[in-house]
Write a structure and sequence with these properties.
CATH class of one domain in chain A: Mainly Alpha
Radius of gyration of chain B: 24 Å
CATH superfamily of the largest domain in chain B: MetI-like
Shape of chain B: globular
Largest sheet of chain B: none
Largest sheet of chain A: 2 strands, antiparallel
Radius of gyration of chain A: 24 Å
Number of helices of chain B: 14
Structural class of chain A: mainly alpha
Strand order of the largest sheet of chain A: 1-2
Order of helices and strands of chain A: HEEHHHHHHHHHHHHH
CATH topology of one domain in chain A: MetI-like fold
Strand content of chain B: under 5%
Number of strands of chain A: 2
Oligomer: heterodimer
CATH topology of the largest domain in chain B: MetI-like fold
Distance between the termini of chain B: 34 Å
Order of helices and strands of chain B: HHHHHHHHHHHHHH
């Protein structure tokens, strides 16, 4: 009887969390797969149409534009913030005068809501009164500053810069934690063996930081696929969809055009791309598990 | 000062320090600019240029954003949504985490990995069904619709973090309590939770800012202006004061004050929360 109760107990603790998770997260995920095979306006009941949403997706110019933009975002995210964040972590890992202040300055953007960052930067980018153009014109670099958010070639990159501004602190935190966990004796040993600073970094430090780098990579990819708030606040995907990303395009299809089945198929594509990285992360967690 | 002397022992270090200072200044520019903008009038900025000595300094923008812009409503809404979500997530995830960390049973790993995988889901994949579900439950355009979703979605991350922490608690303490005839619920509540407090503080600090800063779900699950949290409210404010940037910026600064304060006072926990999952 006692044994039975003990076997039963964990399920008792897990009952509420599991039910909530199934109803609000896991169930909906599968329901989206179903919805992507239907024609649904959000009011009447969904109508099964097979893979027609996907067929249409492959001829949709805006879909590909948004996908490309997500990829540009992703490419920027796995390079610029990673290099900058790692560099800052290396610098701030030893006792720098004013260390606390520096760290705080880079952490701060992380705690601001995306919406807040978007609005603040929207003002910096303002064509006439904004700081950036004021400086450019003031220094005589240009006669008339560009419309950072209204120029087709600039809008997306202007938004990505804001995202990078937020992301650097995050990457830095992770690498700082990684660096703290490295035994300094390894580095000493390499130096005694005659390795120069660059060799120590390349051959000793980077490999030791590999586990952190995997996490950084996965987080960067997932964050760039989730991108929504900044675009929504700063440009709404414009001008002429030039800064549209999949999440925004999906939102517009679902809640402005009421093509919910079609929107679901966009979500499924996003999901399939992330799946690879979710598995990388799970594999990493699994390795930690095996060490126990 | 000794610290500084030790640091600047080579010219190389001096150079790095200068680069560091410049980068930091660039990083702070957006916030500094906003502070300056929020106390000026838009006409002043447009006629005299941004880089000019302000004609007058005013707190009027904050007042406008607070009263006419509706921040006096949006900001309390954010707390009404965030605090119950936070409490519920922490409660349920600490229960689940205890079972996952401390019991061997069928499905343990499966449930654990479902939580871990779920926290990385691109949430677009949940958008339409959750919208429909919330509507079906009669919770569309209510605080509770949003609270339930946040509670559920954040369970993944919280359970993952707390479970890993709970595994490090020495088993002897729990065993001793068990022998004394303590029920499992008492052990969880009276022994496990107090021992997990550092992790709970770290995760909760992080979750507070995440839930507070959510924008996407607020615009999907709420429609009424009077229910909107600050993030969705700021987007409305932007629509209402399209060209009056000092008011928009002042509103953004006011809106970010709670998370900024949490960060300033609980910075240690915030950073711990971020690194909890990445390194052991």
């Amino acid at each position: 009887m006692v044994r039975l109760r003990r076997n039963f107990l964990p399920y008792l603790f897990l009952a509420i969390p599991i039910i909530i998770y199934l109803v609000w997260v896991i169930g909906p995920m599968f329901y989206t797969f179903y919805l992507s095979l239907t024609n649904w306006d959000g009011l009447s009941s969904p109508q099964f149409i097979g893979f027609r949403n996907y067929e249409r997706l492959f001829t949709d110019r805006v879909f590909f534009l948004s996908l490309t933009n997500n990829m540009k975002w992703l490419a920027s995210f796995v390079t610029v913030p990673v290099v900058l964040g790692l560099a800052l972590a290396m610098i701030l890992n030893r006792a720098v005068p004013g260390e606390k202040f520096f760290k705080m300055s880079f952490y701060m953007p992380m705690v601001l809501a995306m919406v807040v960052s978007g609005l603040i930067w929207g003002w910096l980018y303002h064509p006439r009164g904004g700081l950036i153009n004021s400086v450019l014109v003031g220094l005589g670099i240009v006669e008339k500053g560009p419309g950072w958010l209204s120029d087709r070639d600039l809008a997306l990159w202007s938004i990505i810069i804001v995202a990078i501004w937020r992301q650097v602190g995050y990457v830095m935190v992770l690498y700082l934690a990684g660096l703290k966990s490295i035994n300094p004796e390894y580095l000493e040993a390499a130096k005694i063996d005659g390795a120069n600073d660059w060799q120590v970094f390349r051959k000793v430090l980077l490999p030791l930081l590999m586990p952190v780098s995997v996490i950084v990579l996965v987080i960067s990819v997932i964050d760039s696929l989730r991108a929504f708030d900044l675009v929504s606040v700063m440009t709404r995907g414009g001008p002429a969809n030039s800064s549209s990303v999949l999440a925004n395009y999906m939102y517009i299809q679902a809640f402005n055009n009421y093509r919910m089945g079609y929107a679901a198929s966009i979500a499924v594509i996003l999901f399939l791309i992330s799946l690879v990285f979710i598995f990388i992360y799970l594999w990493r967690v699994m390795q930690d598990e095996l060490e126990y | 000062m000794k610290n500084a002397q030790a640091y600047f022992k080579s010219p190389w270090r001096v150079l790095i320090f200068i680069v560091l200072v410049l980068t930091t200044i660039i990083w702070l520019v957006p916030i500094m600019t906003s502070l300056v903008t929020s106390i000026r009038t838009f006409n002043d900025i447009l006629y005299r240029g941004f880089i000019s000595w302000p004609e007058e300094i005013t707190l009027g923008n904050f007042k406008t954003a607070w009263e006419r812009g509706g921040l006096s409503r949006y900001l309390p809404n954010s707390f009404i949504i965030t605090i119950p979500s936070l409490l519920l997530t922490m409660l349920f995830s600490s229960m689940g985490a205890y079972a996952l960390a401390r019991f061997n049973f069928r499905g343990n790993r499966l449930i654990f990995f479902t939580f871990v995988g779920g926290m990385l889901l691109p949430f677009q994949v949940l958008m339409l069904p959750v919208f429909k579900l919330t509507d079906f439950l009669g919770l569309y355009d209510t605080y509770w619709g949003l609270i339930f979703f946040h509670t559920a979605f954040q369970l993944g991350f919280c359970s993952f973090m707390l479970r890993n922490y709970m595994r490090t608690v020495p088993g002897e303490i729990l065993e001793a309590a068990r022998i004394d005839g303590c029920s499992e619920f008492r052990i969880w509540w009276r022994i496990m939770l107090p021992l997990t407090l550092p992790a709970i503080a770290a995760v909760a600090t992080l979750e507070f800012t995440w839930i507070f800063n959510d924008y996407l779900w607020a615009i999907i699950l709420l429609r009424s202006e009077k229910l909107k949290p600050i993030t969705a409210g700021l987007a409305s404010l932007q629509g209402q004061f399209v060209t009056d940037w000092p008011v928009i910026v002042a509103g953004a600064l006011l809106g970010t004050l709670p998370t900024l304060l949490v960060f300033l006072f609980l910075q240690r926990y915030f950073i711990e929360g971020l690194t909890l999952g990445a390194t052991k």
